[in-house]
Amino acid sequence: MRVRVGARVASTGAEGPGRRYAVWLQGCSIRCPGCCNPHLFGRGGGEPVPVAALLDEVRGAQADPETAIEGVTLLGGEPFEQAEALAPFAEGVRALGLSVVAFSGYRLEELLAPPLAGPAVARLLRAVDVLVDGRYESGQPDDSRPWVGSRNQRFHYLTARYSPAIERTGVEGPVRTVEVRLSPDGRVSVNGWPVGLGMKAGGRPVRESGRRGDQNEEPSRSRQREERPGRSSGRT
């Protein structure tokens, strides 16, 4: 079984509580206006990765003392539109003793009712410790909680692994965190929850390349993008 992946980072401190392996799923039919990851909308992008291969990467990140992850975060795109393949992946992560945090544009009530409800979605939900749900609403920016873009988005604690304490400012570091990586071949990748940087990406204002609206808008969800050598990359 394969998962269509837009991007992944072996160890990040910007995508949930603690150090985490983060995977951005490719494809999203919700397409929230102002989403900061429009390049992940199309189902044909990214690459199909076997579930077993992703689990091997997670094991490697868990075993490496330099990464020392405590869990995996599922972002997008829309993870629950690939629930059939993600469910066994999330179960494998939990079997390693790691936690699973998932971000979805769907509300939990939508995931539990037709037409979305089904065995695959239910199976994935059972393997998730924390679900952050809800569409991004540009008119309800939230700068008081980590990892969310608008006030309507909710944290659901589906297991006892975490508590609402993770939502408090400063518990796991700054509310907005940006990570920039430079690979050996010169590629630059950026992920996290930036605000107000006003930088350029690929010669265009970031807001124009990844979001609508003015330079003061909050990000809808964590941004993730990789740039080829010779191009600048930024997030706001």
Annotation keywords:
236 residues, alpha/beta
Describe the overall structure.
This protein is an alpha/beta fold and 236 residues long. The protein has one domain: Aldolase class I (TIM Barrel, Alpha-Beta Barrel), CATH 3.20.20. Helix content is 18%, strand content 25%. The protein contains 5 helices and 12 strands. The chain has helices spanning 51-63, 83-95, 108-111, 119-126, 206-210; strands spanning 2-12, 20-25, 47-50, 71-75, 99-104, 130-133, 154-157, 178-182, 188-192, 200-201, 204-205, 223-227. The strands form 3 sheets. Strands 3-1-2-4-5-6-7 form a 7-stranded mixed beta sheet. The chain is globular, with a radius of gyration of 17 Å.
Low-confidence stretches: 196-221, 227-236
The total of beta strands comes to: 12
Q: Biggest sheet: strands side by side, in what order?
A: 3-1-2-4-5-6-7
- In the CATH scheme, the class would be Alpha Beta
CATH topology title: TIM Barrel
Write the layout of secondary structure elements.
Blueprint lengths: L1 E11 L7 E6 L21 E4 H13 L7 E5 L7 H13 L3 E6 L3 H4 L7 H8 L3 E4 L20 E4 L20 E5 L5 E5 L7 E2 L2 E2 H5 L12 E5 L9
Parallel strand pairs: 2-4, 4-5, 5-6
Antiparallel strand pairs: 1-2, 1-3, 6-7, 8-9, 9-12, 10-11
Helix pairs in contact: 1-2, 2-4
Tell me briefly what this model is.
The protein is an alpha/beta fold and 236 residues long.
